[in-house]
Amino acid sequence: MSQPTTKLFGTDGIRGRVNEFPITAEVALRMGKAVANVLRSSGPNRNRVLVGKDTRISGYMLETALTSGLVSMGMDVLLVGPLPTPAVAHLTKSMGAAAGIMITASHNPYEDNGLKVFGPDGYKLSDELERLIERHILGEEPDAPPLPPGQIGKAHRIDDARGRYIEFAKQTADNIALHGLKIVVDCGNGAGYFIAPLIFKELGAEVITTGIHPDGININSGCGALHPEHAGELVRQHNADLGISFDGDADRVIFTDATGQVVSGDRILALCALGLKEQGKLKKDTLVATIMSNLGLREALKQHGIQVEATAVGDRNVIECIRQNGYSFGGENSGHLIFADHATTGDGILSALQVLRMMRERNATLAQLSSVMHEYPSELANMPVASKPPLDTLPGLQDLMTAATKAFGENGRHLIRYSGTDNKIRVLVEHREAGECSAWVGKFAAAIREEIG
What we know:
The chain is α/β, with parallel strands linked by helices. Helices cover 36% and strands 21% of the residues. It has 14 helices and 19 strands. A 7-stranded mixed sheet has the order 1-2-6-5-3-4-7, with helices on both faces. A 5-stranded mixed sheet has the order 9-8-10-11-12, with helices on both faces. It has a 3-stranded antiparallel sheet with strand order 17-19-18. Helix 1 (25-39) packs across helix 2, helix 1 (25-39) crosses helix 4 and helix 13 runs antiparallel to helix 14 (434-451).
């Protein structure tokens, strides 16, 4: 197989542009065979793999090729159709499958797609298992011999998959009654387009929907978690209580308050951590966040006896920290929230239900609950790059970073890193003075352009 790189898995599965390596039918077929080789077990359901997808038009191509690879190796495939990523993770575990595979590129445009793999416990795979699957896909491990015709697998459509997840999601919030609440729900024309509004309606809320008519190419286009201002405008128009916006695979959620203003992910993390502590459910009084979270989050929670443990960017890093240390809650300021007592991955719908329950139980608005922290002014720049040389090989940028650290002291911070999913470099500056943020982002951007181009 000809390919420009030998690394397939990024921070969130395999992702790229459709019909270009590695998001091709050929790779999807080999992925099916590789998963069968690596994750087959000796248990009673050793030959079952659950496959879901979001609403991208390329999902048909990848689903068919993936299924062919799996059944050729004797695996039975459980097809659940368009469902949120966390639903696939949950159903993989609850249905006793050997693996779950979600076909999605999350927040990316429709031209991209990807493949996320979950183990039988519903968690994303370890780095070691991903590397082994990768070697099988690339032909660096020998293929198993072909099976005789009578031993190949079958594909089954699971018609009640939606209903299974709906009941699970509602139960995580104790079927909280939402009567009297008016909610704008923007599904981004993605995987939650059907299931999300239905859940909120069944719990009694009045739901104004948008982004629920996917056509294969409009996923994330001017709507959903990438554009929460769209829900915010509808909140104002309909005098709603809040807006809830999901990304393409509904594992992320962004909120807008009753004025239509976007509530930052860090404020949501703070209010959830405080709510869980009040309920006695914040294990070890610790919130797990990433290095991207605002300095104000740590300051606010410290006043309530809650410590913040920071990880590298990526929800899998947050989840790994939670699992290793016995914590119960964490997330990213981008909208991934992990309620570890209920879910094995970020779940936008489940997270929205938990926030709504806290509003109900405290008889408070979202704006009131989210006023618990003061955010440092910050500025984030995403710059496209043609290559990703190690940052420590860029002397001009390194000198500038050293100067910034000295100048900031305890009044701010900077963070420069490459995106794990896109050809971009991200520059974040936080400071007590907003003007310092803009000035230093400009300096960093100029240095990056000079040394990387």
